[in-house]
Specification:
Number of helices of chain A: 8
Strand order of the largest sheet of chain A: 2-1-3-4
Structural class of chain B: mainly alpha
Order of helices and strands of chain A: HHHHHHEHEEEH
Strand content of chain A: 5-15%
Number of strands of chain A: 4
Radius of gyration of chain A: 17 Å
Order of helices and strands of chain B: HHH
Distance between the termini of chain A: 43 Å
Number of helices of chain B: 3
Largest sheet of chain B: none
Radius of gyration of chain B: 69 Å
Shape of chain A: globular
Largest sheet of chain A: 4 strands, mixed
Distance between the termini of chain B: 184 Å
Strand content of chain B: under 5%
Oligomer: heterodimer
Number of strands of chain B: 0
Shape of chain B: rod-shaped
Structural class of chain A: alpha+beta
Helix content of chain B: over 70%
Chain lengths: 175, 184
């Protein structure tokens, strides 16, 4: 999918969510689903398999998300999957999140940790990142066991890496 | 005894003896001398030219043989000189060939020694390089093995020590450092 089409889908989803008045929740849920989609081979194969009828793929989405996220999120993901663009879902969502953050004059800060963060930690981390980068941030937390421990935050082109994985890699490199 | 001897004995005279010890009887000289002259004249007149001619022919023949002998000797001398000269040439050629062979042998020997020396130098350099490479390789392999084992040990130790409290500590430490502006 080319950039203009990704941008088109992101703009469409953003406008729908904003019209629904649930943009904050939806973009957060979409972001989480996109990360789940990236990390799950099984889910990725199921939703992007052209051999599976679109209705069945949409049914998988609804079974997976029904009752757990807002109906708008479920419908938007179902629409993307039904149109055969599941492979581009993470890119579309990332663009949507960026657009939503930009609308609020925020910068997306993707934070990866090995364990989930508490609300208090997220609040303090957002403040710390705002202090460090000079920008107000829209914090998006991804639980990624591969970081082993610590936190890595990406704000625009700035990467602040405090993960155990990186420390170990540096130590291995020195060895 | 013959009749003449008998008569001589009877006459008291030895018929076998002449009156002179050197000269024959007179009548014998009377007939003998002219006869001898005639004979000698005839011999001189008729046999002389033949004898002289034969002698001249023999002389010529002998002279021819002498000349031929002289010519043969001259030829032999020339041939001997040629042989001696050839012998001299052969000796010179032999000497030249020996000198050339000596020079070639000397050059070959020197070339062989130089090549051997060069090969020794090259072999020595190659051996030194291989020793250095083997040493370096062994060092690299040892360092790689140590690094691999150390990395495995680090993985094992670090991942084994990451409990919930450590995770929280790491997160809090990160938040504190970022908040303080200490970007990593």
């Amino acid at each position: 999918m080319n950039e203009s089409r990704i941008e088109g889908y992101a703009r469409g989803l953003f406008e729908i969510a904003r019209a629904e008045g649930t943009i904050d929740e939806v973009e957060d849920e979409l972001f989480r689903f996109a990360r789940l989609y990236e990390n799950s081979d099984e889910l990725r194969n199921a939703l992007s398999d052209e051999q599976i009828p679109a209705a069945k793929r949409q049914a998988i989405v609804e079974d997976l998300l029904g009752g757990k996220v807002t109906s708008t999120t479920t419908q938007l993901i179902s629409m993307v999957v039904g149109s055969g663009r599941a492979r581009e879902l993470p890119a579309i969502v990332d663009r949507l999140v960026a657009r939503a953050s930009s609308a609020k004059n925020l910068e997306v800060a993707e934070v990866r940790t090995a364990v989930s963060l508490t609300e208090d930690q997220q609040t303090r981390l957002a403040a710390a990142l705002a202090n460090a980068t000079g920008k107000q941030v829209n914090l998006k937390v991804v639980v990624d066991p591969s970081v082993l421990g610590g936190v890595v935050a990406t704000v625009g082109d700035t990467v602040i890496d405090g993960t155990v994985r990186t420390r170990i890699e540096q130590l291995k490199s020195r060895l | 005894m013959s009749l003449l001897a008998v008569l001589a004995t009877a006459a008291g005279h030895d018929e076998t003896q002449t009156p002179s010890k050197f000269w024959p009887e007179g009548y014998e000289m009377l007939f003998g001398i002219p006869a001898s002259i005639i004979v000698f004249f005839l011999l001189w007149k008729f046999a002389g030219p033949v004898v002289r001619k034969g002698m001249a022919a023999r002389t010529a023949k002998i002279q021819g043989e002498l000349d031929a002998g002289e010519a043969a000797r001259t030829d032999a001398d020339a041939e001997a000189a040629q042989i001696r000269r050839a012998k001299g040439d052969i000796a010179a050629e032999r000497a030249r060939l020996l000198a050339e062979a000596d020079a070639q042998a000397t050059a070959l020997l020197a070339d062989g020694r130089q090549r051997l020396a060069d090969e020794l130098v090259e072999l020595d350099a190659r051996a030194q390089a291989e020793i250095a490479a083997a040493t370096s390789r062994s060092g690299d392999e040892l360092r790689a093995e140590i690094a691999r084992l150390s990395a495995a040990a680090v993985d094992h130790v670090v991942t084994g020590s990451l409990d919930s409290a450590t995770h929280q500590e790491l997160i809090e430490s990160f938040i504190s450092k970022v908040g303080a502006g200490a970007l990593s």
